[in-house]
């Protein structure tokens, strides 16, 4: 009896030790690979991509397209007497300016289309298509934006993010097989060709640059989406945003632009909602946004209407030619029309850049957007730093939207203004304003150019955008050596 019992005990212990070693080895390997990731991304990221039901998406798009085309504005583009001037948001009420003129008949026609669409939504019951309980990042790219997306993905991995990404390409012509089939899957991302869904409708229609965003969100496979412009760079792991307020209760989180909102009064008449004071919030900057398709499906459908009929009608009505007119102003009105909640960060977007070589005056080249969790914590206690900046310490920066020029390794190293002093020596791109730069916990610029160098040297002949650019790696290395190699990250 006794020896048998001991043998049994021994084998249990052996199996236990074996499993423990296996577990340790797995973690060790991942950790090592993660740490040494300059050639290889972390293994634990290699989650198989979730594939969505494309047939169901095509059915949805056909039904939605029918609803969109059968409720048109019914008039040509409204007359507009010029573009509205950009005025920096300053909290206090500011006189509305009206640049659009519409007759009563024209307003009535647009009202009819708008009302018909809203009514159609309740009659036709269009259901969203997504994989339940999934979260991910969506961006639109192609051409010169694809290298930026790969750099962003590597940065995300370094920040510890394991969120998958869907990269939407407008048409099959933008598909790059090596990037889409080899590089992106290693980084837990995949390509989706939007045209394959949109062109399956009876009236394929050219979908423009700004309209891509809304349809990419709509046809991504995720239930909860962080949309990122290809040039908007997260500088923290975005996972926390999904798990915290304000997203958990609001389901739609947006970030502010520099300007006052500049909608036309006619929009509110057409949509049947009140016109808010323009001091209530800044205009929207949609380089990044969070949305739940489960809780905000109606908002998305409404935004699809404003974008489908955007370029000639709702874009001008919602911004009157204001800075960056396009999809950005369609989300909040859409949510208001269908009575779904939203939160827009109040912390002012900050321009960052470097100094004028002669005067040292600030030259902005990117926008810094702040942590919505911290912002919401303050505003829900009634603390508004927009009116009293000294009331509380600033939330931490969360995204750098590099909006002025593309930081594409193909040309950024040759940039004479942002990247170099007048004598030709390299300089830092992000040094000002110091008070803002001090809020960053990481050296984002160094991290960016480290990954830019990785992409330039490992994928030099891979991106179509870089064909024939044989000195990208040499330039990226030279810049890196001169600027950062002596510093610690
Ligand atoms: C070029 O100009 C910058 C800024 O004035 C200076 O710091 C740097 O030393 C100069 N480099 C050379 C090689 O003269």
Automatic annotation (TrEMBL):
GO terms for cellular component: Golgi membrane. GO terms for biological process: mannan biosynthetic process. The chain crosses the membrane at residues 12-28. InterPro entries: Alpha_mannosyltransferase, Nucleotide-diphossugar_trans. This is Alpha-1,2-mannosyltransferase. The keyword DNA damage does not apply. Keywords: Golgi apparatus, Membrane, Signal-anchor, Transferase, Transmembrane, Transmembrane helix. It is found in: Golgi apparatus membrane. It is a single-pass type II membrane protein. GO terms for molecular function: alpha-1,2-mannosyltransferase activity. Its main location: Golgi. Pathway: Protein modification; protein glycosylation. It comes from the Eukaryota. SUPFAM superfamilies: Nucleotide-diphospho-sugar transferases (SSF53448). The keyword Cytoplasm does not apply. Belongs to the MNN1/MNT family. It comes from Gomphillus americanus.
């Amino acid at each position: 009896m006794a020896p048998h019992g001991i043998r049994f005990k021994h084998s249990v212990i052996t199996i236990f030790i074996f499993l423990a070693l296996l577990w340790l080895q797995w973690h060790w390997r991942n950790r090592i690979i993660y740490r040494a990731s300059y050639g290889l991304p972390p293994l634990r990221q290699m989650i198989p991509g979730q594939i969505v039901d494309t047939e169901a998406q095509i059915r949805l798009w056909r039904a939605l397209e029918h609803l969109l085309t059968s409720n048109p504005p019914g008039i040509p583009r409204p007359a507009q007497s010029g573009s509205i001037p950009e005025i920096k948001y300053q909290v206090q009420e500011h006189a509305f300016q009206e640049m659009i003129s519409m007759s009563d008949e024209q307003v009535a026609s647009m009202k009819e289309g708008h009302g018909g669409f809203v009514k159609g939504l309740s009659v036709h019951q269009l259901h969203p298509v997504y994989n339940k309980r999934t979260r991910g990042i969506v961006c639109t790219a192609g051409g010169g934006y694809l290298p930026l997306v790969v750099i962003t993905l590597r940065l995300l991995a370094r920040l510890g993010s394991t969120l998958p990404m869907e990269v939407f390409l407008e048409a099959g012509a933008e598909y790059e097989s090596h990037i889409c089939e080899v590089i992106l899957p290693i980084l837990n991302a995949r390509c989706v060709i939007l045209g394959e869904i949109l062109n399956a409708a009876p009236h394929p229609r050219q979908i423009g640059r700004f309209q891509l965003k809304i349809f990419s969100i709509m046809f991504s496979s995720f239930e909860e989406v962080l949309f990122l412009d290809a040039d908007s760079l997260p500088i923290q792991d975005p996972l926390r945003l999904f798990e915290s307020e304000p997203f958990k209760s609001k389901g739609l989180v947006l970030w502010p632009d520099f300007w006052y909102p500049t909608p036309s009064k006619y929009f509110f008449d057409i949509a049947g909602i009140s016109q808010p004071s323009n001091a209530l919030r800044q205009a929207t900057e949609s380089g990044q946004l969070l949305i739940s398709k489960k809780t905000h499906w109606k908002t998305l459908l409404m935004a699809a209407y404003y974008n489908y009929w955007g370029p000639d009608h709702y874009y001008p009505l919602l911004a009157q030619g204001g800075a960056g007119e396009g999809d950005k102003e369609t989300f909040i009105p859409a949510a208001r029309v269908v009575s779904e909640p939203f939160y827009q960060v109040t912390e002012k977007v900050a321009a960052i850049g470097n100094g004028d070589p002669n005067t040292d005056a600030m030259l902005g080249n990117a926008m810094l957007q702040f942590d919505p969790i911290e912002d919401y914590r303050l505003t829900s206690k009634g603390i508004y730093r927009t009116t009293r900046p000294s009331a509380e310490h600033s939330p931490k920066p969360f995204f750098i939207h590099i909006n002025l020029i593309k930081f594409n390794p193909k040309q950024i190293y040759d940039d004479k203004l942002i990247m170099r002093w007048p004598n030709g020596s390299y300089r830092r791109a992000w040094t000002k304003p110091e008070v803002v730069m001090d809020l960053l916990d990481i050296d984002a610029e160094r991290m960016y150019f480290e990954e830019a160098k990785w992409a330039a040297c490992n994928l030099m002949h891979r991106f179509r955008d870089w064909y024939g650019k044989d000195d990208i790696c040499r330039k990226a290395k030279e810049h890196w050596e001169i600027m950062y190699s002596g510093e610690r990250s």
